[in-house]
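Example 3.2
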Amino acid sequence: MNERTVLVVAHGSREATGNVETAEFVARWRQMRPQWRIELCFIEHAEILLDEGLDRAAEGAREVVVVPLILNAAGHVKMELPEAIERARARHPQVHFVARRHLGMGAELFPLIQQRLQEALRELDVPDPATTGVILLGRGSSDPGGNAELAKMARWVFEANDHELVDLAFTGITWPRLETVVARQVKLGMMQIAIVPVYLFTGVLIERIGAQVERLRRQYPAVAFALARHFGFDERLVALLESRVTNGEREGMLECDGCKYRAAAAHEHAHAHHHG
């Protein structure tokens, strides 16, 4: 019997390439940790969803460590995942299920955002930061806390660089949207704009962002745009996941796992979202 299974929980994408890229990420992690049993499931838009993933992870294991491969804690992480874990605990009383925190947007991920920004600036031939706007572009959530995490990253980018304008925009659910922020930055005199998607993997929304940037290039022919790539596989992400697995007790539980907010909201939970 395996002492422990690590179950990676990803969002899932309607675009098959997004789920393939996620699976490749987990496969590379397995190669780095052959002594670990690492499984993968998705919250939606995939073949293996939460309940089946938890059941597979529980087979032959004494403990299942659930690690969300998700940047922001919104409805999926705060509501659906803890509920699925509770169902799994009822189905597998002999297995100890523990839930770790999502990736979040903290000091561990900031260097990756900075790297993507610097790559975009090199594409623009390293222009004057005084006339180069930066836009961090996130998924957008009905949960203010999730949106606030991106706002924190935008402030950190401002503090660490010399750009006069560092803004945030969202692809859905909340505001402002990319086109609005670009119009504002152009009006304020930005001659170059670097757009940094804060996304783990490709998917419908990454494709949509690419199409939006192409339209913006046609709309503002005098402005140079650089679109950074999404995160994809990066050993810093793996290191953060491994920290969640090994130091999880110190880092805390899954967001709202067992908290009063989730219990009180369970009967009225309804969140709108776009899927990537």
